[in-house]
Amino acid sequence: MFPHIRPQDVADILIMAFLVYQLYSWFKNSKALQVVLGLLFLGAIYVVTKSLGLFMTSWILQELGTVLLILLIVVFQAEIRQALYRLSLLRNFFDRQETGVRVDLLEFSATVFALAAQRIGALVVFQREELLDECILHGVPLDSLVSGQLLTSIFLPSSPLHDGAVLIKDGRVSLASCHLPLSVSAEVPQHLGTRHRAGLGLSERTDAAIVIVSEERGQVSLSLAGELQAMGSQAELHEKLTSLLLPLSPEAQRVSLRSRLFANLWPKIAVLALVVACWLLITFRQGEILTVTAPIKFHNLPETLTMTRSNPEEVDLQLKAYSHLVSSPKDLDIVVNLDLSKAKEGSNSVQIRKEDIKLPPGVVVANIERSLVKVVAERKVRKDGAKER
Q1: What are the domain boundaries of the chain?
Q2: 18: Cβ–Cβ under 8 A, 6 or more apart, which residues?
Q3: Tally of helices (H runs) and strands (E runs) in the chain
Q4: How many Å apart are CA 49 and CA 51, to the nearest integer?
């Protein structure tokens, strides 16, 4: 069934599966994933209607797809920018790296639960690997050490900075009274207020860890990756923040690398199956080998020589296409370009190589008939009748 699977095809499937799973992991709790699923459904309808010959429906869906692509870029520009940043392999070279968190997480946890006991609302954002500049608005610069007294004074109702979030960046209080993007997820419970929606909204878009103290219920929660986790004690909050913010030991890193492959196994299997199915539909093509006649063109002939004749002037190529993304080889303008830089006076035999034939990806040369070309070259004659040397 699969007579010609190359190592490149396996790499192609694995790379696409990795990218699709990463996009799914980032956007699974956002509306962007729902929009993508809707577009995939419309794409499936378009394929079905086009194959059934429903010209009006397929034409409308095709034109609608062009408009929707532009709308998606406009509406989800923040998500697209964040995804491109996450995919950047060079961000760790340019972003400032911190060797350790200089926050006393034990004191921080005690302060947070003290605020909860007094029914004082609080919202604290810990920046991790991803930059938050695009998501956080306004804010009063502080650049102060993190301490329980400072956080308590900021979130007291009488403080002018209590309304908003505190950003802890590189182990210091960077901003206070920040505005965060609100979550638009329909799954957020109605009893949660603006403070919780702000924490969830930021965690949906970034990898930040957000600690939320409810003013009404006196409950402490941790928002991470679009999910809200209730913290029952100081020890639980301290343990969770330590695992998120402090660097792992080499032993723990080795364990996480081994288990990372099998974490969320079923979503990974589903993504891999989807990518393989798409590869079979788009890339794999079991067609017969087609013979195409291509003209032979020459270049790089030495200036002292002139070509008098060549044989043959065109050659038959046997080509095979492995992708539906390219046209049939019969519809391609294929030319054989031979290099004559090493040609000498008299008769020359030039071998046609596969590198001399420029083909689009997905089309390969199966065979070349008469791969040897005879080229006759003579010395150019000057106006005085003498041959050039």
Answers
A1: 7-92+270-282, 105-246, 290-379
A2: none
A3: 11, 14
A4: 5
Q: How many CB atoms lie within 10 A of CB 339?
A: 14
CATH architecture of 290-379: Beta Complex (2.170)
Q: What is the largest CA-CA distance in the chain?
A: 108
Q: How far apart are the C-alpha atoms of 235 and 64, rounded to whole Å? A: 54
Of 116, 120, 211, nearest to 157 by C-alpha is 120
Inter-residue contact 237 to 112 (CB < 8 Å): yes
What's the whole-model pTM score?
0.55
Q: Which residue has the tokens 């979130």?
A: 155
Q: Do β-strands 314-321 and 363-368 pair in parallel, antiparallel, or remain unpaired?
A: antiparallel
Whether 374 has a pLDDT exceeding 90, the answer reads: yes
Read off the pLDDT of residues 99-112 as tens digits, 9 standing for 90 and up: 444 678 899 999 99
> How confident is the model at residue 293, as a pLDDT?
87
Closest CA to 226 of 265, 182, 261, 260: 182
Phi-psi region of 68 (alpha: psi -120 to 50; beta: other; left: phi over 0): alpha
Contact 377, 348 (CB under 8 A): yes
- Which region among 245-254, 343-352, 364-373, 376-385 has the lowest average model confidence (pLDDT)? 245-254
Check if the beta carbon of residue 166 is closer than 8 Å to that of residue 176. Answer: yes
Find, among 146, 162, 368, 328, the residue nearest to 241 by Cα: 146
C-alpha pair distances (Å), 269 with each of 10, 47, 147, 202, 262: 15, 25, 46, 29, 10
Best CA proximity match to 319, nearest among 295, 297, 296, 293: 293
Contact 283, 139 (CB under 8 A): no
* Higher per-residue pLDDT: 198 or 290: 198
Collapse the DSSP code of 244 into the 3-class scheme (helix H, G, I; strand E, B; otherwise coil) and give the result: helix
Collapsed DSSP state (helix, strand, coil) of residue 237: helix
Distance CA(349)–CA(380), nearest Å, equals 20
> How do residues 214-241 score in pLDDT, each as one tens digit?
988 889 999 988 888 999 899 999 999 9
Q: Which CATH class is domain 105-246?
A: alpha beta
In this structure, how many other beta carbons lie within 10 angstroms of the beta carbon of residue 206?
Answer: 25
Instruction: With a cut of 50, say whether residue 45 has pLDDT above it.
Output: yes
